[in-house]
Amino acid sequence: MSGDDDVDLLIDSWSDRLESVDLTPLDVMSRLRRAALALAEVRHDVFKEAGLGDGEFEVLAALRRIDPHGVGPTRLLALVTCDITTLKRRIARLLGRGLVNRESASDGARGTLITLTPTGRARVDSTMASLIAREREMLAPLSSDDMAGLERGLRQLLDGAEQSKKRRSALER
Description:
By secondary structure, this protein is mostly helical. It has 7 helices and 2 strands, in the order αααααββαα. Helix 2 packs antiparallel against helix 6 (about 120-140) and helix 3 (about 55-65) crosses helix 6 (about 120-140). The longest helix has 29 residues, at about 145-170.
């Protein structure tokens, strides 16, 4: 591995100012943050190349993963990371571009179903394939053992973060 990177320099500068503080978490967390930012940039670029916003892709991908006969807005909301107002705006944009349809529920139930159009299905499939290819490029420097270890470590980190969040939430009650 090469010499010092930006994170090493960051830690060195903090260690001069906070001599009594163990800065070990910065080794991992600062690199994780930088990797997340790099991934977000890759994802944004792939979506932009496909003519989609990040949130639009999220809606199309959720629709593609679940019921091919469509889902109601409430179920779709549970699968995306936005509020109902934002979801409605995203659906309206996708409707206007012919990537989704809004249909009345066919089973006699009240409400509407959101479905992918053939164009929307093709767009999300090709975008997902491009995204996977770009993510594979990002991971190219890692061996399969490195990737397996990284995945295990990230699973543990995320599980620990979720448990910590639950503990803090319980204490606040």
